[in-house]
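Just wondering, can you check both lines?
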Amino acid sequence: MSKDPDSIVAILQEWRAAGKPAALATVVSTWGSSPRPEGSHLAVDEAGHFVGAVSGGCIEGAVIDAAAQVIASGCPQLLEFGVSDEQAWQVGLACGGRVQVFVEPVE
């Protein structure tokens, strides 16, 4: 589910006010084909509920898994995903590209 950044922040604030640990994932860098631009966000709570989007779905699961680790450890992670133009069709992507996503705990 994609939401505007203000809605994502509001939902994060609701989660934190309710005492729910959460993490925020942000697209910090892209190269080539990327379904979401830099600055796109995905918020995740400790139960795995999420709002926003950092991809067209192809890396969302990995980012949600990383968010769970970040929530548990309190340590941020910088994730990088990519596929070459030659491999793109093999993995179901129309074009190659690379994206970096920073995942941080929300206090």
